[in-house]
Amino acid sequence: xxxxxxxxxxxxxxxxxxxxxxxxxxxxxxxxxxxxxxxxxxxxxxxxxxxxxxxxxxxxxxxxxxxxxxxxxxxxxxxxxxxxxxxxxxxxxxxxxxxxxxxxxxxxxxxxxxxxxxxxxxxxxxxxxxxxxxxxxxxxxxxxxxxxxxxxxxxxxxxxxxxxxxxxxxxxxxxxxxxxxxxxxxxxxxxxxxxxxxxxxxxxxxxxxxxxxxxxxxxxxxxxxxxxxxxxxxxxxxxxxxxxxxxxxxxxxxxxxxxxxxxxxxxxxxxxxxxxxxxxxxxxxxxxxxxxxxxxxxxxxxxxxxxxxxxxxxxxxxxxxxxxxxxxxxxxxxxxxxxxxxxxxxxxxxxxxxxxxxxxxxxxxxxxxxxxxxxxxxxxxxxxxxxxxxxxxxxxxxxxxxxxx
Length: 405
Hints:
four-stranded mixed beta sheet; seven-stranded mixed beta sheet; globular
């Protein structure tokens, strides 16, 4: 560890005695002191006491502008009264209902109306579950065994292809290079390829957008070979009213959703063409079943309805994505002008800061924290509706000051 980084850690620790104490307590009962590994960082993560709008405040009284956005799940910010009111109303009618109810129909209709490729949909509790169910459905539908994926992709805690692969489910994965037309030759050389799972913009993989040419060719090859194209829109559905598939002019056989569409509650969904989803319809001869105690829980259903009905209008989405494009360009320019080996990638409200070495990224992360600006440790940024132009300027100014050190 460099002397500079050691001093940064000392300063961080001295300013957060309560978070330090809670981390010690947490480490006794949870391995690593957490139950979501991505939230951990050195020397220990701060503990949040409250959140409102675009800010979070830790137990030691430090307030940060939240640029992490709960890894895209926090698109609505931290205090949407629309979501709160919908959840309270739903709870007043009872919860933990082990039966069907009307809200799930309304939310399903809203999802199908919003995404052109989804004829029918089923709900889950997370994007990970949605992707697992989509893969299983696609392989059953095609009668094949191969699952096409791409390097650096992340589709959930057991579907990681750049890190954490030890926990992956044991499908027969065929991995190719992302956004590389030659890599498609490798995938489709497998004559038992049942589906291809992809994000048009890799989120956890560093906010890497695919080219239009690549996505168009992937769609063509899937259609030609009868391979089910599964578009993971758990993160990217925020990029346009109809998701990344609208931007790239795609019509995947299946789409997976999650994150912000549940209004901040646990949420996931998978859906697609009627003939594929018919595998779950016994009346049509379908033999698949789907378990999940909380798939249609009233809190997530109510929050999802409120989100799609009252929060996600086209103008707000356009504004947050334009703001993200402006931030990405401004940060990239700041690094270039300062001559530091750092850069930005992404599209719209999803972006990522990169560095040639992890040491510089660690210093940058802590420097932003010291300025009251919170982004993911790996440099990931997901803007919420609550983040303002003034917040953007503040991050850019802090970056310029740090880069010019």
